[in-house]
Specification:
Belongs to the FAM3 family. It comes from Balaenoptera acutorostrata (Common minke whale). Keywords: Disulfide bond, Lectin, Secreted, Signal. One of its GO terms (cellular component) is extracellular region. The protein has four helices and nine strands. With about 240 residues, it is an alpha+beta fold. It is elongated. It has a five-stranded antiparallel β-sheet, with helices on one face. A four-stranded antiparallel β-sheet has the order 3-2-1-9, with no helix packed on it. The protein folds into two domains: about 5-50; about 60-230, no CATH class. The termini are far apart. About 30% of the residues are buried. It has helices at about 5-30, 35-45, 135-145, 165-175; strands at about 75-80, 90, 95-100, 110-115, 120-125, 150-155, 185-195, 205-210, 225-230.
Length: about 240
């Protein structure tokens, strides 16, 4: 083949190949939907990425327990006060019976009485044990609780300075092992039953004494708590 003819053939082939490439690009552009460049780049990058599996948020339990109480039980949580501004709290079946939000917590010993059969609160009261003579009224309040009652007691600030013998005996009669060990600003929580017995394994009482070396707050020990699940009685 002559050189001139060979050159012409190569030029024709190049033009044909260019037209085919252009037409292929045109068809590809028509078949692929319009996408922003950033979306296309993100899609390419995400091809090799593994999906991120997120664990569901834990379900909140009654009285902020970590695990739910079994059926046919009452959830409770008792928290003593801590320092000057950490108020005591009594929670029963996810209802705050005594606490800062309910506005019925104060210095001294705070008490809530609950009907064991119905699970309804029947009375709440606080008794200042730093000023005044409130041991007598507190004794009457405890002894007036009907049979088949749950009694919840928590301290805020000082609960011992004016705690007299009559109220100590009344609390001892409910099963307290620590009421005579109370000191100035001791943190104390106590769960009692009147007219029936609680199961042996239930958390009922804790005390934490003020110690200038170990105190969490200046002049006050750390707050303490007990919590658990109380089997319901027959209705």
């Amino acid at each position: 083949m002559r050189p001139a003819a060979a050159g012409t053939l190569k030029a024709a082939f190049f033009i044909f190949a260019s037209l085919c490439a252009w037409y292929s690009g045109y068809l590809l552009a028509e078949l692929i939907p319009d996408l922003p460049l950033s979306s296309a780049v993100y899609s390419i990058r995400s091809i090799g990425e593994r999906p991120v599996l997120k664990a569901p948020a834990p379900k909140r339990q009654k009285c902020d327990h970590w695990t739910p109480c079994p059926p046919n039980t009452y959830a409770y949580r008792l928290l003593s006060g801590g320092g000057r501004d950490k108020y005591a709290k009594i929670c029963f079946e996810d209802e705050v019976l005594i606490g800062e939000k309910t506005g019925n917590v104060a210095r001294g010993i705070n008490i809530a009485i609950v009907n064991y059969v119905t699970g309804k609160v029947t009375a709440t009261q606080y008794f200042d044990m730093y000023e005044g003579d409130n041991s007598g009224p507190m004794t009457n309040f405890i002894q007036s609780a009907p049979s088949k009652s749950l009694l919840f007691m928590v301290t805020h600030d000082d609960g011992s300075s004016r705690l007299k013998e009559d109220v100590k005996r009344a609390i001892e009669a409910l099963g307290s092992k620590e009421i005579r060990n109370m000191r100035f600003r001791s943190s104390w929580v106590f769960l009692a039953a009147k007219g029936f017995e609680l199961p042996a394994g239930i958390q009922r009482e804790k005390v934490n004494h003020s110690d200038n070396v170990k105190n969490r707050y200046p002049g006050w020990p750390a707050e303490i708590q007990v919590e658990g699940c109380i089997p319901k009685g027959p209705s």
